[in-house]
Design goal:
Strand content: 5-15%
Strand order of the largest sheet: 1-2
Number of domains: 1
Largest sheet: 2 strands, parallel
Distance between the termini: 14 Å
Helix content: 25-40%
Shape: flat
Order of helices and strands: EHEH
């Protein structure tokens, strides 16, 4: 949560029973936490298989948190 900007939103994809959210930080910085149901593990395995066989790759950029505004 420390990396969210003012009006930022953190998306939780999947389930985690131990998620703790600092409510004061959310209020003061107008931040939000939203959940997204991503399906079953069997369905995800099928998606992952198609992505691997079709050569789909993610594009990731490492950006230092110190440089975020």
């Amino acid at each position: 949560m420390g990396g969210l900007a003012i009006n930022g939103t953190m998306m939780v994809i999947g389930a985690t029973p131990a998620l703790q959210v600092p409510s004061l930080q959310l209020l003061l910085a107008r931040q939000a936490v939203k959940g997204w149901y991503s399906g079953t593990s069997i369905r995800f395995t099928g998606y992952a298989r198609v992505l691997c066989t079709d050569g789909v790759r993610s594009m990731n950029e490492v950006y230092p948190l110190e440089k975020a505004k």
